[in-house]
Write a structure and sequence with these properties.
By secondary structure, the protein is mostly helical. The protein has a domain at 233-293. It has 15 helices and 6 strands. The strands form 2 sheets. Strands 3-6-5-4 form a 4-stranded antiparallel beta sheet. A two-stranded antiparallel sheet has the order 1-2. A hairpin with an 8-residue loop joins strand 5 and strand 6 (290-293).
Length: 321
């Protein structure tokens, strides 16, 4: 999402702790400033009254922001936790139940339905859990706190504009503690640019409309450069003596060059000798699983800048359809 929740977490881990602005500015004074700025940007007084009245800082949000752990799972742990049979089965059901919508989404955005379903599955378990934090309260808390106040203040203003546009009621604008919202887990600023009204009701409702949510995921991928005629990548086996230092996402070569070096399918058969830009990844290190990844892999990483995430999306997408 160009700044999705995991980018926020990564940025936070790189920043030293900073004192909260609460020491110098009351929460009410902060909200008064937000109201003034939002009114200048065209948000109605009625929306501000509904969205901001009675909210208080959420201590749980601050607690979660303060104690984000470093990411320590191995590739195998990450893969097995997310590529479970229950998630695969759930994806197959979701694909079948939403086939007509997914076909319409594919026709409009030229993005594979299976990868849309896979992202949906990893983000919110096919809509099973989209978060239970009041987004306005969470964003207001984080903007007032001061660690990344400018970023979250902009997100709060974007959230107020979404409410003012009538896309969702204030009590339905729920999401993660950091403000990622709905089935696709969009941040509010990404909603403005990337959410779509797929069901044609005049609202972009990524919380309660599956067509809008699935169309928005596809639009995100399409806008990020998805190539419908290409795969995301595939598992491969490497030739004896392969140099693990060559396995880097930045080290791209035409697929035919890797084929010439002896990279093959897992069953030993030959890969197509194409000019397709390809990198080799060893997510678990030398001796573990190997993958050949193509440009669509990097498009998935635009949704979440993690090789592990993009690999699991690709693998899940291969299994759900």
């Amino acid at each position: 999402m160009l700044f999705n929740r995991r980018l926020i977490l990564a940025a936070t881990m790189a920043l030293p702790a900073a004192p909260a602005m609460a020491a110098t500015q009351s929460f009410e004074a902060f909200l008064d400033g937000v109201r003034t700025e939002a009114r200048r940007q065209g948000v109605s007084a009625a929306t501000l009254q509904r969205a901001l009245s009675g909210i208080r800082p959420n201590d749980r949000v601050l607690e979660l922001d303060r104690r984000q752990p470093e990411f320590t799972q191995t590739w195998e742990q990450y893969r097995d936790a997310r590529l479970s049979q229950s998630r695969i089965d759930g994806g197959r059901r979701a694909f079948a139940e939403n086939r007509a919508t997914l076909e319409a989404v594919q026709g409009r955005f030229r993005v594979s339905p299976r990868v849309v379903v896979a992202i949906w599955g990893l983000e919110t378990n096919y809509g099973g859990f989209t978060g239970n934090f009041n987004v306005v309260q969470s964003l207001a808390t984080l903007a007032w706190d001061g660690r990344r106040s400018a970023y979250f203040r902009n997100e709060l203003l974007a959230a107020l504009k979404i409410l003012d546009g009538g896309h969702v009621a204030p009590d339905r604008m729920v999401g993660s503690w950091a403000g990622a919202m709905g089935h696709p887990q969009f941040m509010p600023s990404n909603f403005d640019r990337l959410a779509v009204d797929m069901d044609g009701d005049g609202r972009r409702n990524i919380w309660d409309s599956k067509p809008d949510a699935l169309g928005s995921i596809a639009n995100y991928l399409a806008r990020s450069g998805w190539r419908e005629e290409e795969l995301w990548g595939r598992e491969v086996v490497l030739p004896p003596g392969f140099n693990p230092e060559d396995a880097r996402r930045e080290n791209t070569r035409p697929l035919r060059d890797w084929v010439r070096m002896g990279v093959r399918r897992p069953d030993g058969s030959a890969l197509p000798a194409l000019d397709l830009d390809t990198a080799i990844l060893l997510p678990g290190g030398a001796g573990g699983q190997a993958f050949a990844v193509y440009p669509n892999f990097n498009v998935i990483r635009r949704y979440n800048p993690s090789n592990f995430y993009a690999l699991v999306v690709g693998l899940l997408s291969d299994r759900v359809a």
